[in-house]
Amino acid sequence: MGMTITEKILAKSAGKSSVAPGESIWLNVDTLMTHDVCGPPTIAIWKKEFGTKAEIWDKNKLVIFPDHYIFTENEHANRNVQVLREFAGEQQLPNYYDVGTERYKGVCHVALAEEGYNLPGTVLIGTDSHSCTSGAFGLFSTGVGNTDAAFILGTGKIWEKVPESMKFIFEGELPEYLTAKDLILQILGDITTDGATYRAMEFDGEAVYSLNMDERMTLTNMAIEAGGMNGIIAADEKTETYVKARTNREYEIFNSDGDARYHSSYHYDCRELEPVVAKPHSPDNRGTVREVQGTELTKCYIGSCTGGKLSDFTASAKILINQKVRVPTFVVPATTEVAAQLEQETLKGISIKEILEKAGCIIAQSSCAACLGGPMDTTGRAVDKDVVISTTNRNFPGRMGSKQSEVYLASPLTVAASAVRGVITDPREFLI
Amino acid sequence: MEKIIKGIAYVLGDKIDTDQIIPAEHLVYSMSDESEARKYGQFALSGVPAEEAGLPAGNQPFIDGDEFESRYGIIIGGGNFGCGSSREHAPYALNKAGVKAIIAESYARIFYRNSVDGGFLVPYESMEKLNDSIRTGDELEIDMQKNELRNLSRNTMHRLRPLGDVLPIIEAGGLFEYARKSGMI
Ligand code: SF4
């Protein structure tokens, strides 16, 4: 019987000719990623369990991006980065991207792509739930905790149960007023936050392959919001072009077989969809933008691994050009590369950065920033009863910093349109 | 490993995510230094909105005042317990607060793995919805051999889903102990 792309990659990694859902297997990990929140405890567990003279299984396969709590006075947070720095020095790690140096990148999931670590056909494990993002490049990627990561650090191995796969097919051309964020919020509303628990979410269809890599990453990024083990999109020419421009590491392309078995399949016709939001306090609390239109806002936020990529800002700029925002609007480019691209890319001859600045947006330095609240001095953090519309991925109570705040998740187009009006606004008002 | 887990129930609703279990601003304390590590216990479940804290009444703090440990040892949850981030700080914080086991209708995968692999607590799945019949403060007893939950305060018994594949890891006390026992490391 045929296998899905996820099953094929897992079989290869486990050294088997085939695997079936439900089977527990040990995988050989190709890339392990960690950051400043989970890196220090992972290192501590590794040292405790393997002894101080222990060797890392493969230094070239370990990648560390400090990204969560970076531009803060919080001493504990800064100490965590110091722990990473010392570890990287002591172990002579080739893939450490230190704060305060030219190597500093910012949000790990976007940086993994930019630095050429997202290799089709490989297994990537990260100490971050949004590690599923990398699956946009046709690889198996998932998040784990510190103990699992420490185990990989010493052995290169992890146990997994082969997931059943769910397929999500988007047909038709994506209209100008929709982005990948609308597609994934649509799915979340349909299957809810545990609709894909322990399963693989495979995205397919003409509309998905019409998306650039940034947008594909938005889809796979939020697989975890449905409880998914991984999100995955088979690699195509666009993927290869992106990867080859950034690395000469080897990779292998896998595709699902025609007779592969799926837990379920969902079909969407893009022409029938409309801009949506996730209302407070859950990413699956979907409503159309029309339904919540007019909701008064106190803050807008464009950033994170979900909504802080170049495409997110070019989309926002389409609406913000020659406009002024009515509420404080925070722009956080996910990485330093995205920040640099904002100056290079132009719309109607004006750089994206200038468009955003002229509209009155506050542009912060690349990091996770207020996506997860963070220390008190974090840029854009929700306070008190803030009502926020954001391109990020989670709106659980308190996620952006205040338990009393209300957070709506939306596409960069919807956030930009809402920033201009000061109330939740359908982007079609500006685009049609 | 203990075969009977006793504890006082602390009842929560559905979708208790990791930001409610341990809010992100607290993820900065060292886990190796005990004087800091116990703060994870102090702030465990501090992100749960007051009206949802300790059902059905609500407004029942999990941790009293500035304590580092809770008097509640067993958590009764609803669906999708532990959804959200991959932070192992979540089951760790509950462990630090003195929680021995959770019984929920379902779990988010990473939280479940972390609970088991880190040896922090036993995540049981219930066969039925329990957070509407068990009340915060009830005295509970989990029989791990029979996969049963006994509510001593109400004299009721509920069946629990067997732990399956992960039982050997739980019995060993975590992933590293399991790997050592089985000769992997
Ligand atoms: S940007 Fe937000 S979701 Fe993405 S890695 Fe950072 S904290 Fe997590």
Offer a concise description of the structure.
By secondary structure, chain A is α/β, with parallel strands linked by helices. Chain A is 32% helix and 18% strand.
Report what the structure shows.
The complex is a heterodimer of chains A (432) and B (185). By secondary structure, chain A is α/β, with parallel strands linked by helices. Chain A has two domains: 5-245 and 263-267, 2-Layer Sandwich (Aconitase, domain 3); 278-431, Aconitase, domain 3, CATH 3.30.499.10. In chain A, 32% of the residues lie in helices and 18% in strands. Chain A has 16 helices and 19 strands. Chain A has helices at residues 5-14, 39-50, 75-91, 108-114, 146-155, 180-191, 206-210, 213-221, 237-244, 289-292, 304-307, 310-320, 336-344, 352-358, 412-421, 428-431; strands at residues 24-28, 31-35, 62-65, 123-126, 140-143, 157-161, 164-171, 199-204, 230-232, 264-269, 276-278, 286-288, 299-303, 329-332, 346-347, 350-351, 362-363, 387-390, 406-409. Chain A has a five-stranded parallel sheet with strand order 17-14-13-18-19. A four-stranded parallel sheet of chain A has the order 3-2-4-5, sandwiched between helices. In chain A, helix 2 links the parallel strand 2 and strand 3. In chain A, helix 12 packs parallel to helix 15 (412-421). The mean pLDDT of chain A is 97. With 185 residues, chain B is of the alpha/beta class. Chain B has a single domain, classed as Aconitase, domain 4 (Alpha-Beta Barrel). Helices cover 23% and strands 19% of the residues of chain B. In chain B, helix 4 (109-117) links the parallel strand 3 and strand 4. The radius of gyration of chain B is 16 Å and the shape is globular. Chain B starts with a strand and ends with a helix. The mean pLDDT of chain B is 96. Chains A and B meet through helix 2, helix 3 and helix 5 of A and helix 4 and helix 6 of B. The complex binds iron/sulfur cluster. Iron/sulfur cluster (SF4) is lined by residues 68, 107-109, 128, 130, 304-305, 368, 371-372, 393 of chain A.
